[in-house]
Structure prediction request, 118 residues.
Amino acid sequence: MTEQNSEKKVKYEEKMISTPRVPNEPDPLLPAEKKVDKDDIDKLKGLQQQYSDIMVEFGRLKVEKLLTQQKWTELESLEKDLDKKYFDLQTSEAEIATFLTEKYGQGEININTCEFKG
Prediction:
């Protein structure tokens, strides 16, 4: 910066400092403040409330989803246990059928009358 430019800057700064501001008068270097209508503020507050409500719903949804996933995992575990019991029962049925066939031969057994028809 040249000495001349430096002098201009100092003079400008001095002028800014030396210019008295009138109280309650807007600063000419700042944008003017405007009063916002109550209806417009209410609209903005309404938007904020809607965002807040949606965030709460997201939270509830996430918790419900976690609980549902937990329940689903429990149901899958129960299903797996029942599958095993079902297949074990089929194995037992086949073993009993083989035993009864060897003992009584091919035919039908009426479990109500305890009779065998071959």
